[in-house]
Amino acid sequence: MGAISEKLERQERLSGVGCQRKRKEDLRFIQGKGTYIDDIKLPGMLHADLVRSPYAHARIKSINVEKALALPGVHAVLTAKDLKPLNLHWMPTLAGDVQAVLADEKVCFQHQEVAMVIADDRYIAADAVDLVQVEYEELPPLVDPRKAMDPDAPVIRPDLEGKTQGAHGKRVHPNHIFTWEVGDKTGTDQVFASAEVTVREQITYQRVHASPLETCGCVASFEKASGDLKIWLTSQAPHVVRTVVSMLSGIDESKVHVVSPDVGGGFGVKVGVYPGYVVAIVASIVLGRPVKWIEDRIEHLATTAFGRDYHMTGELAADRNGRIRALRVHVLADHGAFDACADPSKWPAGFFHTCTGSYDIPKAYVRVDGVYTNKAPGGVSYRCSFRITEASYLIERMIDVLAQKLGIDKAEIRFRNFIQPEQFPYRSALGCEYDSGNYPAALKKVLEAVDYPALRREQAKKRARGELMGIGISTFTEMVGAGPTKTCDILGVGMFDSCEIRIHPTGSAIARFGTKDQGQSHRTTYAQILASEIGIPSDHIVIEEGDTDTAPYGLGTYGSRSTPTAGAAAARAGRKIRDKARKIAAHLLEVSEDDLEWDVDRFVVKGVPEQFKTMKDIAWAAYNNVPEGMEPGLEAVEYYDPPNFTFPFGAYICVVDIDRFTGEVKVRRFYALDDCGTRINPMIIEGQVHGGLTEAFAVAMGQELAYDKHGNILGASFMDFFLPTAVETPKWETDYTVTPSPHHPIGAKGVGESPHVGGVSAFSNAVIDAFAHLGVTHINMPYTAWKVWKTIHQLGLDK
Ligand code: PCD
Ligand SMILES: [Cu+]
C-alpha cells in the first residue's frame, strides 16, 4: 500500500500527461505582461500605413505622392515603381501563384494595397495616406464565381495572359486557376446510374474570416552595419517566414531572424506572408530604421486571408435502406484575385478529399475548380485542417438530406453507414488512411446523454402545434497533423516538426519547439508530455517557441498539427534523454543497464527498490560523472516525420428552438463529445472545445464576408461581421471517449479544430431539421434572424 501511494504521489508531483495543470501562460497575461507585436518598440522606429484601393477592379492611371511626402514627419511613400527594381513588386504565394505586393498598374480587389507611407508615427502616416492621389479607371468587376469562366467574363489577371499551365495543371480560361480531381469517376457514375435512390443538393459555405484579438502586423529592422534583418511578426509559422524572406530578398537565411512573440490568436490567418510585411521590410532596408506595420480591424477582415467560399454540389447514391453506395461532389472554389491558399503544396483543395467523413462509402469522386474573382485573396484554414470543415460540412449535410428523403432517423442513418471499429486502419475511397476510431460508441454515448428519443418525441408534439424545434447531429472525423513529409510540404520544405531539450545539472530543463503557440497553451502541455517521459516535474521544464535563432526548425502551428507532430517529437526526444540517463544510472549504481527499470522519475535496480537514481541525480552526474567514453551533458533533438495524420472525431448534438415570428434561433442545448486519443490536459481540451464551438456558432449564425455587385465588401467591421460575446454564446456541455492513435508515440491526436469542424454542421443540421417536416432540405448559412424569417415567411408559418 505504502509503496503504491508513494509512487502515485511522485507521479502527481510531475503534473504529466492527463493532469489538469493550470495554464503556465496566464500569470503573465492576466497581469498585462504579454508581449504582442504592438508592444515591440525599438529606438528610432517608424510607422507604416497603407494606401488601399476603393475599387474592386480598376486600372491605375497615376499615383501622385508629392503632397504626402511634403507632410512633415513623412519619410517615404513606396509604390510598385519603387519595388520593381528590387523585383519585389510581386511575391510568390504558398499556392504557387504570384500576388502583387503593391498594385502594379491595376487593382483587383477592394482595399488592395497600392502604396505604403512611412512616417514618424501612425497618425502622421494615416494623414499622409489620405494625401496620396491615385487616379483610377474603373473596370467591370467579377463578383460571382459562377460567372468567372463565362466567355465574356472580365479578365482579372492580365499578368497570366497566355499561361495555359498553372501550379496545379492546365488552365482553360483566363480566370481559371486549377481543376483538381480525386477518386473513381467512371465507377462512381456507374453506381449513380443504377442506384435505388439518389439525392443532390447545392451547398454554399460562405466566405468567412477568423477574428483573432490581435490583427496581423510586424516590426522589421535591418541593421546596415551587420547586414542582419530582424523581423518580429505575429506568425503561426516563423521558420517558414524566415525561409521565404531569405528566398525573396536574397539575404542569407542565417542573417534573417524572425521572432514570433506572444500571438494574440491565429486561427489560420497568421500562416501566410502578407504584402504589408514585405513592404515594411523593404522600407526598413531603404530607410535604415525599424519600421512597424499593424493592420486595423477593417484591413484585417477585408484583406488578409479569408476562409471557405466553397460552392458545392453534393450527390449521394444509396440503397432504399439508407446504405450509401457512392458520393459525387463538385466544388467551385472562389479564390479571389490571387491564389494565396495556405495548403500543403500538393493539395490545391487542402484535404477536401476527407469528404466521405466517418462513413464507409465504397465509391467517390470529387472535382474542384478554382477560379479568380475580384475579391481579396486567401483560402486559409480558419480553425480547420485545410478545407476539412468544408468537406465535413458537405457530408454531414448530405447524409441528413438522404435521411429526409428516405424517412430514416438522422441518428439511425449514421449508424448504418459508419466505418466500423474493426475496419481500422481504413482506406477511404478518396485515398485517406484513417488511423483509428470508434464512431458508433461515440454517437451512442451522446444519444443516451441527451435522451435522444425523448427529444424526438418532444419535437413531434411541437410540430403538431406548429412550433419549430430542430435537432442537429454531426458525427465528424478530422485528418490533422500534417506531415508526413512524403505527401505534405510547404514550398518544398517537408512538414515534420521538432523538439530540442536540454537538462540542466540541477535537474531542471528547457525545451524548444518548431511550432508556435497562439493561445493553445503549449508551454503548459508540452511540459506535461516531457514530464511523463523524463520524470522531471513539468514546473521545472521551460518551454520556448517562436524565435528562429534558438528554436529548432519547424513548420509551425496550424491544422491541429502541434500535438501530432511536435508533441510526438517531445515524447521521442524525452525517450532519447531516458536512454542516455539509463546508461548513466547503470554506471552510478554499478549494475548493467538491463538490471534497471524506469519508475516514474527514476531508475530502480530490479528487485532492489531501495537502490535507485532519480532523474535529478542523473542530471547532476551527466555533468561530472558519466561512463567512460560517453559525452557529458544531457540533451536531445528530435525531428519527427509522422507516418500518417491522426484522425480525431466526435459526435455533437444541437437542439434549437426557432421563433416563428422573428426567425430568431435559440440554441437550447449543445452536447459535444470529442475523441482526441490520449488526453494530455483535459482542462485545456475543454477550453479548446469551448473556443472552437463558439467560432462554429459564429460562422453558422452570422459570419459572412459578403460583397455587393460592385465588389464592395460588406462585412468588414464588427458592426457587420458577427463576433459572439458571452451574451450570445450558448452553454456548452462536453464529453469524451478515448481511442488512441496507434502511430503517435503517446496515442494523442489533435483537437484544436475539431469543435469548429464538427460544430458548424451540428448548428446547420439543427436549424434545417426544424423545417425538415415541411420539405426543406437545405438553407445556406449564416442563419441570421432575417434569413430564417424569410424561410418561415415563404412557408407561410408566420400566419
Ligand atoms: N490529445 C490532446 C490534444 C491536444 N491537447 C492540447 O490542446 C491544445 C491544441 O492542440 P492541437 O490540437 O495539437 O492544436 P495546435 O496545433 O496546438 O493548435 C492549432 C489549433 O489551435 C486552435 N486553438 C486555438 N486556441 C487559441 N487560444 N488561440 C488560437 O489561435 C487557436 N487556434 C486554433 C487553430 S485554428 Mo488553424 O491555424 O486555422 O489551421 S489550427 C488551430 C494544445 O495545448 C494541446 O497540448 C491535449 O491536451 N490533448
Ligand atoms: Cu490580418
Automatic annotation (TrEMBL):
Dimer of heterotrimers. Each heterotrimer consists of a large, a medium and a small subunit. SMART domains: Ald_Xan_dh_C. InterPro entries: Ald_Oxase/Xan_DH_a/b, Ald_Oxase/Xan_DH_a/b_sf, Ald_Oxase/xanthine_DH-like, AldOxase/xan_DH_MoCoBD1, AldOxase/xan_DH_MoCoBD2, AldOxase/xan_DH_Mopterin-bd_sf, CO_Mo_DH_lsu. Catalyzes the oxidation of carbon monoxide to carbon dioxide. Keywords: Copper, Metal-binding, Molybdenum, Oxidoreductase. It comes from Pelomicrobium methylotrophicum. Its cofactor is Mo-molybdopterin cytosine dinucleotide; Cu(+). Its EC number is 1.2.5.3. This is Carbon monoxide dehydrogenase large chain. Residues 31-140 form the Aldehyde oxidase/xanthine dehydrogenase a/b hammerhead domain. It comes from the Bacteria. One of its GO terms (molecular function) is molybdenum ion binding.
